[in-house]
């Protein structure tokens, strides 16, 4: 902020009401006070009702003593002429034009003047530097296992500080940490909302406050009596913003509230642009809402998404309900995402798969809202079924397997009749159910699917019935039956021109052949999948074919080829959120490591795979007795080599790895075991380059989190390096590592090897 004031004579802090603009401006002003010979002056504009009084408000705040008949503006020009002063001008939004005109003249005539303004939208003066104030940092649900990450977030610290003013014994504990995280998240890290919520903690528990947030405007009242009226309740705060909007802005604000998860411009235009408010007018009005901090624009690469803070969105939802447009907006939103999902399926077998999945992931909350409305609205169940089945890759390849199955099951509970919609949902549900290892439920879905396909005489449903019945037999261990059905499925998909479905059936056929037929058959099928997928720029089936190729090479004893294929598959998974493929590849890499006598690596890779399986709600056991037998055998070898206690410790340490962290760890291990040009005294030192770096930083007294920041890697990866290092060295503590590094330094061994960079 100091640099901003040095770079521009006018800095405007913008952001929605309650975000803390005033507080930040006053803190900054106090810190730079010494840089201004004539000090700091604060001009409060919040109480003004008439824009014609702006100049008078300035003269009053600056104590300009001039009783002549000159205008207030001229008095200010003369008063500030030679002064070196910082003006903090607070709450400009409701008198924006008058304030902008006055400040433009003062800045032109008073060279020693600098201005720090707060406003819900920029002043629009030449040379203005606009700084958007973000909400406070909020812990995510993913961080709940790390108490420090939750407790040290800005939103939680503010909540604790304000709560203790009304409940001195308040603290974040293991019991209430989830509720604290949910409270801060649902309040978007908005300081005023958090402060108002903290007041309720004198009477309610955090969990009780969270339960009542659906009525937040009635709940979050009772602010400071000396605060401005509009900052004493949450509703008054948002009412103020609403009053400052034009009719078009209020309408788009209300209509955009239908999106619970934000949206892109196309969605706003297609869903909100209708009737007297045509789609062509959306861009201009949306731009004004962004300027007024009603809508937040978030740049993601070359794309921009728009969202409202939850409090702002719920206020808009109230207005939308008053307008009577809610059913229309919900149908328009559902239809928009139905078109998007259909397009994703049509374009799936080609380039851009991970971008499509990323888009669906960003729209996840909107997709669920569209499904919920379709499920609970009469006559909309068939369209809901189409949406649920078109989202197949979002569920299966996008990391939402368990959630997808729940939605598919809910759709089937309400979708009656022998229809194409029901048949499509049935085969996607059977697929998801099989991946979760629930073969009994899958058998029921498959029987229903086969019935619907026969009644309708639908060749596409028949091909899928063969495909997923084949997977059922593969996972049940009936390999000859599975192989026969896969051949039928491939013929059916190919006749329909469904290249993507052909590739999926073929990689599954290769998996069956891997355990049943000569090795060459599985590899031949994989090579065909790899060639066709590469030709189309398709990567999802490509990764699975690489995994099966690696599995076949491992079974044949060719560890180099197995590792090459597995690593290539894992590199692809960096761009996907397909936990199933990731976990399978991690399992394979663990087996390869064990076969190469790298038991510590095998233990860590197995633990990483287990963490991913756990998040998915399934395990490798779902994939049939043949692969399960390999898994059990190799896991036992790891335990026998490194010990059950150490395996348990590693598993516990890595239990909360995310999919991305697991991939990073595996690729780090893969890189570490490759020969380096500076091997520690011709391999007399057992550590890799990266492990030596970590060891030296441990010796310097850094924590794992600090090491992660130093090396620009994740804390989980550092945890893994420390575990491997302790195992290789036979140590039990970090103190032993520090002593060992010191002994290397004294002997010169490490210097002759490859010195880790000093912190």
Automatic annotation (TrEMBL):
Signal peptide, first to last residue: none
Entries under CDD domains matching the protein: LuxR_C_like
Molecular functions (GO terms): ATP hydrolysis activity; DNA binding
Pfam families per UniProt: AAA_22, GerE, HTH_77
Cross-referenced InterPro entries: AAA_22 (IPR049945), HTH_77 (IPR058852), P-loop_NTPase (IPR027417), Sig_transdc_resp-reg_C-effctor (IPR016032), TPR-like_helical_dom_sf (IPR011990), Tscrpt_reg_LuxR_C (IPR000792), WH-like_DNA-bd_sf (IPR036388)
Domain of life the protein comes from: Bacteria
One GO-annotated biological process of the protein: regulation of DNA-templated transcription
SMART domains according to UniProt: HTH_LUXR
Domain spans labelled HTH luxR-type: 680-745
The protein's name in its UniProt record: Predicted ATPase
